[in-house]
Queue: 2 jobs
Job 1
Amino acid sequence: RTQRPVALLFIDLDHFKEINDTLGHATGDLLLKQVGKRLASYVRASDTVTRLGGDEFTITLAELHDIDTVTDVAQKILEDLSHPFELDDEVAYISASIGITLYPQDAASVGELLRNADQAMYESKGLGRNRFCYFTRSMQDAAQARMAISNDLRRAMGNEQLTVFYQPIVELGAGCIVKAEALLRWRHPENGEISPVDFIPIAEHTGMIVGIGNWVFQQALSQAGAWRSTHPDFSVSVNVSPVQFYRSNEAYYREWLSDCESIGRTPGAGPAVSIEITESLMMTSDETVMDKLTAFQNAGIKISLDDFGTGYSSLSYLRKFHLDYLKIDQSFVHNLEQDPANRALCEAIIVMAHKLGLKVIAEGIETPGQRDMLAGAGCDFGQGYLFSPPVGAEEFERMLRS
Ligand code: C2E
Ligand code: MG
Ligand code: MG
């Protein structure tokens, strides 16, 4: 009506789920109400604040005279939300990730504007949360590329473009292969090899990881079974995404527990596979996650903590749940020979893990020097290009035999 630009801010609270999990849903509701009030207090009568659902809000700034106003408002929101919220007897802290898009510059339709703002919000999350980002063309290009990958991935499984590779895990003392890590490979018909680093996050975002993950698990289980006929103690470890744990619907949860039970009843099936989880999963106070981990352990499946040292490293969770293996992240192993600090960290991690009754696997060993230092520090197992890159099942079998 006024022929002036409009800004749309998409606001998503950071880690709101944790507030719900720790303080309860009633307190979560109180927090949402107070956030709504604070948001409404920044804007003028011509602007609109809405709650889209869950912990998502939007602000529409109409009749803009000056784009700088938008930046000011976004900054003010982040600043004000950083003050504590008093909720009955509790005090809660929260931050938000904000995505901003402009009309008419970025798009002309409401649907497109909302999509843009949502993409920009994801960018904020990706950059570490508690910040705002403006929508850009390149975000849209990236979103389109993700969409293409997601469409192609849907077809990839039926068309046998996905395979599982196996990378040996070596006992450093004896120097022989005792385990393998299962790693997904995707050969795209036009674009060639696509790295799991690029497609796993998309599979997680769309929920496809659940089907794919189950398939990898089955592959690993049957492959390990075959290899155990000649190597009775052999096992294959499978990466399990946090998304597979967080799917919270009741039917899925029951199915999971009954799958684990049937693994537990099949002789040798449990010890044939182990799973790798990440630190972020251990940080949750979600009880169904802990139940699912326990179901794995009851089925005889060992649990490794992957990429140790790169996440929160808040250590207290090591007491909460008994893990079997700790995998030192390759970033510590990489500079081991040059960097005394990395060496000290590796040694300390190994001592700590052993005192807690965990075995240690070092990832990304590329040189004999790194191997020797780790073995000298008492590290139990090693994995890396020095021994072998991940290879197909047939080649792995040849390696295992020799
Ligand atoms: P990850 O679980 O930490 O796996 C180890 C990664 O390090 C693998 O990358 C492996 O190829 C690579 N690597 C092994 N040795 C060396 C070395 O000596 N030097 C260097 N520079 N790299 C080494 P990859 O296969 O690209 O997989 C990347 C990540 O994708 C994995 O990290 C894992 O988080 C994820 N991923 C792979 N397969 C699956 C899967 O089936 N399910 C899930 N949820 N995630 C998977
Ligand atoms: Mg792994
Ligand atoms: Mg790792």
Job 2
Amino acid sequence: MKVMHIVGARPNFMKIAPIIVQMRKWPETFEQVLVHTGQHYDDNMSAAFFQDLELPRPDVYLGVGSGTHSGQTGRTLIALEPEMVRYAPDLVVVGGDVNSTLATALVCAKLGIRLAHIEAGLRSFDRSMPEEVNRIVTDQLSDFLFTTEASAERNLLHEGVDPKKIHFVGNVMIDSLVNALPKAKRSKVLAKLGLRRGEYGVVTLHRPSNVDDPDVLDEILAALEALSGSIGIIFPVHPRTRRQLDSRSRSTSKLQLIEPLGYLDFLKLTSNARFVLTDSGGLQEETTYLEIPCMTLRANTERPVTIEMGTNRLVPLRATDIERCARRVLGERTRIAKRSKPPLWDGRAARRIVEVLRSVAVPDATSRRRGSRRSPRSHFVAASEASPGFQNARVVKK
Ligand code: UD1
């Protein structure tokens, strides 16, 4: 079965890596092709993750870059279609809810190619979030919907998705985290930043609703400045946020604004933090697994299990509320009391996904019949040969 994986933005990389590794164990069943849309292209948003996650070089790099949401989605559609026609995959695998995910789903639907959606069914019920629209459309167009938590299955059934398409497999992002933790422990990032375990908070912000509105951003910054009087704050700044922050805030000794970190350094940073303050989706899940208190700067979350587990709480976007909530966390015990992890967040989600896909795999003959131009397995180099750059990818447009 010829499988095409599509990645584009930072949160995609850790979702696809464990699936690629599992599929490699069945070389007679799966022939894999990796396409990078280029939605994220800075070294520290993309190449650093390929290196840390030992992802193979992409076979194809589309170089779609930044722009308006429609422009970015449209450029991805146009660039992706000929690649799907050329490689003729039997199945396309895509993760999450970014614009590259939506574009992939649309191309598959137009070409009649089966689509597997990793992390299906999550819903914030807030359609002003671009990701919510991406999730709904992608799920409607998917043939295999792999879910991470019980709420996702309920949402999909409510939207009329055929229950036979839904597979509760757990969380592949946690697979990556479990694999990477031993390596992350060796990271020197804390020493480099002058930080000590449990004595700092980590902040990440990138949602347009938080960073593009100067009033909201000023509320958050006021809270961070107030908190930095009591505890060190380390803030790896996303490129979108950097644009807005430049005129507003500067690093101080207690509030450090730094460039985005790679996967292993960031994992070391979060796993030793006193708390995390974020608007990211993935970080709500990672902190739940790591049992680190997380405050989410949003009115809603599509990942309710993180709230149910007691690690995550939603915080109103007012300086006084953010500060009060963080001070309450600081007054609590260092870590969330040991509790069970969400069901199936055990590092084995990719195995379950690959089991499902093996059971429907048509032997290699299908790809050969469709005129595969390369011999099976020639696409992927071993992880040890993986390169941080994409020099050997066929660059379609840059
Ligand atoms: C995207 C995803 C979001 C995900 C986030 C993780 C969508 C709709 N949003 O948001 O769900 O949580 O990625 O980061 O797909 N930029 C750079 N270099 C890069 C990438 C981006 O400078 O490598 C800058 C550009 O100015 C760009 C802006 O960041 O316009 C936003 O990038 P974009 O991919 O449009 O969305 P994100 O905010 O990163």
